[in-house]
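G., the chain you wanted modeled:
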Amino acid sequence: MEDSLREELAVLKDKKLSLTRRLAASERVWRAVLRNEVRDDDMSYAYNVMVQAWKSLGAWASDRLDRNLILPRKRLAANCERVSRRLQEGQKFFRDFPRVGLAEGPCDDKRGRTITGAVKACVYTSIYEFHLEYPIEGMGVRKDRISVVTGPGARLPLFEWCEIHGVIVYCGRCGLDITFEVSRLCPWRKF
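Predicted structure as tokens:
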């Protein structure tokens, strides 16, 4: 690992340093990744350090509602997502919803009907509340009711699938970790 990258990661780890300095370090790490200056074996380590720095911005309940942390948290999350796209083992960090090829969940408007398809938004994402639901073929389904189809006749609950694959989902509005969130609305959502 290069000395400059090691220094930037040390800045990200140090919670005593200013938020501005830590954000600048995350930008420099992302630029190094973009320029292919980070080896594949160092990429996972850099990604993990960035995720820990991002998680530290929403660790306390007071942090979740702090308006001064929303923009830095979103910027750091976006940098984590960018680095995640370059991981050798595949993307693990997603905005608003995980990209799952085939999932199924109950349709709330018709009893007994099951929706099967990709987890994706058919229209832009403003109609969904990602803290509570993910879109399956454009229909919002509560996250705790979604199953990932892993093979013929094999289903795995979404939360378990996320845990196994190390998937992290963040809210594009507030920048918080919403991977396992099903009970609180986005604090920054304007209805």
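The first strand starts at residue 93 and ends at 95.

Shout if anything looks off.
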